[in-house]
């Protein structure tokens, strides 16, 4: 079983800097975070996390996956997971030899970082699953979501399927009903961040969510994994998060008390402190 941490710390009082942010970068295996957004989101969603990490002298790269954020592709044209994740895999491929990063994946980004872990295990120091799909070998993101979906499930109500190839063909993308966004993804988040998301989110390509991951113990299984739970999450329930954790336990589990599905908005300081703590965990921790 993984070590389960207590609830994540709250925000710092004004004018005080927590000791968790006092980082000796020379003692770290890497001080480079790579942030991977969830379905419909983009690199823009990490703006608070980027600022907080950079203030502590971390290097931060936030990726726009294909058809997301400011990436020019149309989500309806994306036919497989490899195509969707290409901006991340291209980035990892170009890392200098011996350089490692900490990957953080949110939501559908969990499947994306798992895909990258299988390809580039030696380039990834640690992998952090944040309110994310943490899948097992042979499982798809849609498999994971369908396991929790009931007839009154908010996620199911919010989904709007897009059929760019015509209604007699499979869906090409999934959009989310703007009127349900706050309740589904941002029920604890500031209104300004909900407004940002409502004008910035894009459709989620359907085919990558259907694709079953091929994950091996020799590659994916060698990367240190951590999970950050979000107990007020209406998109991936805490019960479902814990079932994924039980099915394939990571090294350690953290809990962000009071966090919704978008903790980079609802609990940015507490999320930041957990990321710092994970960066400091040595192999003997």
TrEMBL record:
InterPro entries documented for this protein: AB_hydrolase_1, AB_hydrolase_fold, MES/HNL
Region of interest (Disordered), residue spans: 1-23
SUPFAM superfamilies: alpha/beta-Hydrolases
Organism of origin: Cannabis sativa (Hemp)
A GO biological process held by the record: salicylic acid metabolic process
Keywords of this entry: Hydrolase
Domain AB hydrolase-1: 33-271
Pfam families the UniProt entry points to: Abhydrolase_6
Protein name listed in UniProt: AB hydrolase-1 domain-containing protein
The organism's place on the tree of life at top rank: Eukaryota
GO MF terms, alphabetically ordered: methyl indole-3-acetate esterase activity; methyl jasmonate esterase activity; methyl salicylate esterase activity
